[in-house]
Write a structure and sequence with these properties.
alpha/beta, about 20% strand, about 750 residues, TIM Barrel, Rossmann fold, about 30% helix, Immunoglobulin-like, six-stranded mixed β-sheet, 3 domains
């Protein structure tokens, strides 16, 4: 019966040129909506029923491997609109039935590395090249970027997100959106909002104050919306103070549209929400990926009056406003042949600026190319380009560190190199057997770390320097394990211990490369090594990027987008985040999910609900204010092979805010770039406030030794406001504000006081 009803709706949607059916144009959307039947409207609101493929959305409609579609209705000239994943590049299938061609997409650095560049123009350029692939592969809307907050280092999807700071996050997301949409394709800013853990993600209730919600978890989205106006926004899976994000009229209509002026359409995440009528009433236009059941839910709600035709027509209108902007509607003929070679160059250039030099004692780096490197660690021979799940990309290749060093003609210690190549071939066979049994591609088996004791001792005498790579991969559907992901394993610790002891006994340096999607604990081992290079998950050109940084061909200029604490226990959110235990089922993103219930029935802390008791004091806001000694590396931190000096800071009032001007001078011996970060310390007023907050930033051009430039950073007065729960409004205290031009969140070398009056 159900399938017959759906079929009847689709027959009604078939071409029927009776002369009385309006054909969709930009200027007749209201006429088309008025002509549509209830069945046709429901067909448009409900997505294309994509199936689950390896745990993530997948459809063969339009573009194989895309996440889903907006259903077309030919009778009105409404085309099928294709939606595809893509935080680090477009995710589609590389192979197609009865087609010998391959359709690879460029694998870009993860979002956390993009934000480590602190370079909005560069991130926009990356977006432009990603958007070109979206266009040329026939996709209409990219389901990206992710703009959630790095609340806790164990969140499994942190790699898809930019920062712990809402201002940095919002500006990075806006740059990416503007770059992608410059191609005439759309984006979907996600996951709106307060989506900061994967455990029980479809039913977890985020419990937080209104001020915390506004200042930390909505401000990022607000900035992105105002700076870019994305075509669509995707709601998150979770509840917020007992109300599902996709069903919140206050969130989607009052705030998003009423306060921020959002003009686009809103869609659910894949399978998100429970009450389909409530989803549409709230201001969520599209239910993705759709199903027969959800179609009937909507149709029945229309018939029984629980869903008004006014709400349905509003949803359909906004969907059609989206449709008429798409390449599909405009008749663009895609090539299926984007310039992947050119995009690979963009990929490397972005990665080059996102590498963060955390430690460099006694000039251990850069390494001269005439020095012989003993390359250790299985990840050196199997680099991790990005995370897993919907944030993954089917890349044409991944350059590992061994290959990157070889490409720059480094001299690798031959016996160590031969050992790892042989070992990794054996591991490839073992891993294939395990991964082949895994129905999801989220949790990938990695090579077991090996400790070649004799080779370590021998190479300490023959090689000039040791390089060790530590790797971590994680992704959607699963948070990180504290003991086996955040902390180094016993094998990794032993590897560092043995290599450091042997090489230091010979007076030689040891370098650690961190090929990770999120932070790992460092304080237990960093004093044993001479240099640490954080290269994140740098995309398909990763090995070339790291090799360039190791030899100084590229001078590291990345800065941390989140705080690295001394230990996990020092995190302000540590007591209110689920740690992973062995008894949890694998697919525990759906843990305790019960269809149809409005609120979690159980009351297990951090599973059914998560308390945001830290309030606005998370990340550097907490550490700077209350616990500066608990910081291993502060927010915004990053070393260079040269040094910089800030001088002549001034603040001038301009329309809507201030320009903060500072002179930056390269005081070292090699060319390099630095980042001017502007923090503002508010006067003491009625509301408790952090010691300082980031309000602007800019990256310098490359400066030659002795060269100076003036950097101007705009600070908006609007973003000095705090949210007063008592009045329900944003307020700016009158008084003297301290503007700080700094190299990281704990730097205070340049200060200017500014009197602010509301």
């Amino acid at each position: 019966m159900l399938k017959a009803l759906i079929a009847a709706a689709m027959i009604a949607a078939a071409p029927q040129n009776d002369g009385g059916v309006p054909q969709l144009r930009e200027d007749n959307i209201a006429e088309v909506v008025a002509a549509m039947t209830s069945e046709e409207k429901c067909t448009l609101i409900i997505g294309g029923k994509a199936k689950s493929f390896n745990g993530i959305g997948h459809t063969n409609t339009g573009v194989p491997g895309a996440a889903g579609v907006i259903n077309g209705i030919q009778r009105y000239g409404i085309p099928t609109v294709v939606l595809a994943d893509g935080p680090a590049g477009l995710r589609i299938s590389p192979t197609r039935e009865n087609d010998d061609n391959t359709y690879y997409c460029t694998g870009y650095p993860i979002a956390t590395m993009l934000s480590s560049t602190w370079n909005l123009e560069l991130v926009k350029e990356a977006g432009e090249s990603i958007g070109n692939e979206v266009l040329e592969y026939g996709v209409d809307v990219l389901l990206a970027p992710g703009a959630n907050i790095h609340r806790n280092p164990l969140c499994g999807r942190n790699f898809e997100y930019y920062s712990e700071d809402p201002y940095l996050t919002g500006m990075m997301a806006a740059a990416m959106i503007n770059g992608i949409e410059s191609n005439g394709v759309g984006t979907s800013l996600k996951h709106f909002a307060v989506n900061n853990q994967e455990l029980n993600r479809l039913a977890n209730n985020s419990v937080l104050s209104e001020r915390t919600l506004r200042e930390i978890y909505l401000r990022n989205f607000e900035i992105a919306v105002k700076e870019s106006q994305p075509w669509t926004i995707m709601t998150s899976y979770n509840f917020i103070n007992g109300e599902h994000a996709a069903e919140s009229h206050r969130l989607l209509t009052d705030i998003l549209r009423g306060e921020w002026g959002f003009e686009g359409a809103v869609m659910t995440d894949w399978g998100g929400g429970y009450d389909d009528a409530a989803i549409v009433r709230a201001g969520n236009e599209m239910i993705q990926p759709g199903s027969d059941e959800r179609y009937m839910n909507l149709l029945n709600a229309i018939k029984d009056g629980s869903l008004s035709m006014e709400d349905v027509d509003r949803a359909v209108t906004r969907i059609l406003e989206l449709v008429v902007k798409t390449p599909k509607f405009r008749g663009y003929v895609h090539s299926n042949a984007p310039d992947l070679e050119a995009h690979a160059k963009v990929c490397k250039r972005v990665a080059d600026e996102g590498v963060v030099l955390l430690k460099n004692d006694a000039g251990a780096l850069p390494v001269s190319r005439d020095q012989q490197i003993a390359l250790f660690g299985t990840t050196s021979y199997d680099f991790i380009a990005g995370g897993t799940g919907s944030g993954d990309v089917n890349r044409p290749y991944v350059v590992d560190l061994m290959s990157g060093l070889s490409n720059l003609e480094f001299n690798l210690e031959p016996e160590v190199d031969a050992f790892y190549k042989s070992y990794m071939e054996d591991e490839k066979v073992r891993r294939a057997r395990i991964n082949g049994r895994n129905p999801w591609n989220i949790d990938r088996e990695r090579a077991i770390e090996v400790i070649p004791v004799e080779l370590i001792e021998k190479s300490s005498r023959t090689a000039d320097v040791a390089v060790i790579t530590i790797g971590r991969v994680f992704g959607e559907g699963k948070d990180r394990n504290l003991h086996y992901s955040y902390l180094l394993s016993d094998r990794e610790q032993e590897l560092i211990d043995r290599i450091s002891e042997a090489f230091h006994a010979e007076g030689k340096k040891v370098v650690v490369v961190l090929n990770v999607g999120g932070y790992v604990e460092m304080c237990s081992w960093q004093d044993k090594v001479d240099a640490v290079l954080l290269c994140w998950q740098p995309g398909q050109e990763g090995g070339n990027t790291v090799a360039s940084a190791l030899c100084g061909e590229v001078n590291p200029s990345g800065h941390l987008p989140s705080t690295m604490s001394v230990s996990y226990e020092m995190e302000p959110t540590a007591g209110n985040f689920p740690q992973i235990y062995a008894d949890k089922p694998f697919n525990y993103s759906y843990y305790r999910q019960i269809k149809g219930r409005k609120l979690p029935m159980d009351t297990v802390k951090d599973i059914d609900y998560t308390l945001y008791d830290e309030g606005i004091f998370m990340g550097y806001r907490y550490f700077n204010t209350y616990a500066p000694k608990d910081v291993a590396y502060p927010f915004g931190y990053g070393l260079s092979y040269t040094t910089f000096k800030f001088d002549d800071m001034s603040v001038e009032p301009v329309q809507g805010g201030w320009n903060v001007n500072v002179t930056v001078t390269n005081t070292g011996k090699v060319a390099g770039k630095d980042v001017v970060q502007v923090y503002v310390k508010a006067p003491k007023g009625g509301l408790e406030k952090p010691e300082r907050e980031l309000k602007g930033f800019a990256k310098t051009p490359e400066l030659a030794p002795g060269e100076s430039c003036q950097v101007s950073v705009y600070v908006s007065k609007e973003y000095l406001a705090s949210f007063n729960e008592a009045s329900g409004a944003w307020e700016i205290d009158n008084g003297n504000y301290t503007f700080i031009a700094a190299q990281h969140s704990m730097d205070s070398s340049q200060k200017v006081k500014v009197k602010v009056a509301d």
